[in-house]
Each structure stands twice: as C-alpha cells, then as structure tokens.
Amino acid sequence: MENQLKRWVYGLIGFTFFTLTFVSAEENLPSLMPQYHAPKSPIKKPKTDKIIIGAVENVRIVPPNIVLKARIDTGAKTTSVDARNITPFMHEGQQWVRFDCISGTKGYTIKKRVISTVQIKRHNKSPQTRYVVKMRITLGDVSRMIEVNLNNRDAYTYPVLIGRNFLRDTFIVDIVKRYRYTPKAYRSKK
C-alpha cells in the first residue's frame, strides 16, 4: 500500500510539473518560433498573347461551311470531325473519301483527297484506323487548314473534337469557360 501511495504521489508531482512546463512553453511559443507572413500581393500572372478559350466552343468547318459544337481536348493529338457513311474511292490514281457531315437535320456530302490513315488508341477498346483529310477549321478569328481524322461521332455529345494540331502556339484552355467565341464567317477566295 505504501508503494502504491508513493507511485500515486510521484505521478501527481510529475503530472503537475509536466502541465506547468507545457503551459509555460505554450505561452512563450510566439517568441520561440519564427513567424511566417504570406506575401501581400497575389501571384502575378504571366503576360501572354495567347487566346483563352473554353472547354467547349463553336467552330466553323469548311467544307461544308457550317458551325458545329466542339469539345476542346488538349490530350488529343489531332482534330476529329464527325463523318457518316465514309466511303473510300479512287480518283485520278489517288485515294479519296466521300462522307456525310451532319448539322441538325441537314446532311452535306463531302469529297476529299485522303492524306493518310492513322491508328487511334481508344480506352478499353482496340485501336481504330481512320482516314485523314485536310479541312479548314475556324474558332473565333483564327482559321487554319489542318489535317483532321474522320470518325462517326454520332454517339458523342460534340460532333467535333479539337486537338493539339489546331490549338498549338495560339490557345490556352480554361476548362471552366464555355462558348466564348463565335467563329468568323468564311468567304472562299475566288
């Protein structure tokens, strides 16, 4: 019993000493530790002459000179356009392709020379071979003749997917924004 009483008294003395030391150290804490002060001004944004676009924009594709909704995808190397009834054929010794481009309920038949074919990797699916043709794409005031791959995008929300081959060196994508620009009208030079 005497040993238990000694342990209890020593424990009480130790606890009291520890508590007083901890409270004393806590009171002196500000003077013991250096203070961190956040910068007074926010981080400066670098100045850029690139155009900020949204994650979804309206683009004009030529031919057939129509405006379609486009998903902007910085992860895609090339631009992809919705093409239905894709039919390859030979014309003057070169491979061409005929396809339909749909805008609402109206369809446009387009014939283009095939530049190449590409293998497109797809998530959880086998790679797909697609025809590549040149088409004019316009977003806002920027208009470029680029290579696009043709794919039936009927199952997708957006008939056009804009890839890095159109975006490079000109655009920055703000994923929060949508439909910032209306594509300028296209007038062919005759």
Q: Assign the CATH architecture of the largest domain.
A: Beta Barrel
Mean of all residue-level pLDDT scores: 84
Count up the domains.
2
List the uncertain runs: none
Radius of gyration: 32 Å
Could you name the CATH class of the largest domain? Mainly Beta
Q: Into which percentage range does the β-strand content fall?
A: over 45%
Ends distance: 112 Å
The biggest sheet, with number of strands, parallel, antiparallel or mixed sense and barrel status, is: 6 strands, mixed, barrel
What structural class do you assign from the helix and strand content? alpha+beta
Overall body shape:
elongated
What do we call the CATH topology of the largest domain? Cathepsin D, subunit A, domain 1
SS elements, strand count: 11
The topology string of helices and strands comes to HHEEEEEEEEEEHE
Helical percentage: 10-25%
**Lateral arrangement of strands in the main beta sheet:** 1-2-10-3-9-8
CATH superfamily of the largest domain: Acid Proteases
Count up the helices: 3
Please give a structural write-up.
This protein has 190 residues and is an alpha+beta fold. It has two domains: 2-32; 51-178, Cathepsin D, subunit A, domain 1 (Beta Barrel). 18% of the residues lie in helices and 48% in strands. The chain has three helices and eleven strands, in the order ααββββββββββαβ. It has helices at 2-27, 29-32, 164-167, and strands spanning 51-62, 66-72, 79-82, 84-91, 94-103, 106-113, 116-122, 125-139, 142-151, 160-162, 171-178. The strands form two sheets. A six-stranded mixed beta barrel has the order 1-2-10-3-9-8. The chain has a three-stranded antiparallel beta sheet with strand order 4-5-6, with no helix packed on it. The mean pLDDT is 84.
